[in-house]
Amino acid sequence: MIHDNSSQQEHQLDNGSIRLGAFGLEHADLLNNFYPEDLPEDWRLGFYANEFNALLVPESVWRDESLDLEDWLDVPEAFCFYFECNEGTDKSRLDKFESLLGKHYCGTVNSGRQTIDGRSAVAVIDMQSRSLREWRVWLEEHADMLGAIFLNDDDLSYKKLSDFKSLLELMNL
Fold first, then answer.
1. DSSP readout, 96-140?
2. DSSP state of 73
3. pTM for the whole thing?
């Protein structure tokens, strides 16, 4: 299931809101329809962080030795990074990330295509598996246990992220 190493309350926004983000930044629809065409690649994170308040960084990304985390510090104060870690992952490299990112480092998540675990502080979901109405019902049942939700659809789009963000806002979550 999905597990977050940090306490739920510590990484929720001050108003108790549930954080929302994508599992990675490189989804085709985001590249083609969300980021401006002339936006430099190293500005994508900042652009994304102005709209969403969390990112689940895939293990394949954070393991890349050429990754420059200095660029990651230019995000809003309340922005949170979570890092995908699968069973048996050597997390020693993440110690450096935690030190550099400080309060922006929010923990690790065992992820992948998982079923939703309402007992966890973090859920990685496939939004297309339910209608918005069904997600509303699910959120009514589980919101008090969630600190963050990450969308991991095969065809994740800005519209899906935006629709789910609107749902959270309408529910005052």
1. HHHHHHGGGEEEEE--SS----TTSSEEEE-GGGS-HHHHHHHHH
2. G
3. 0.86
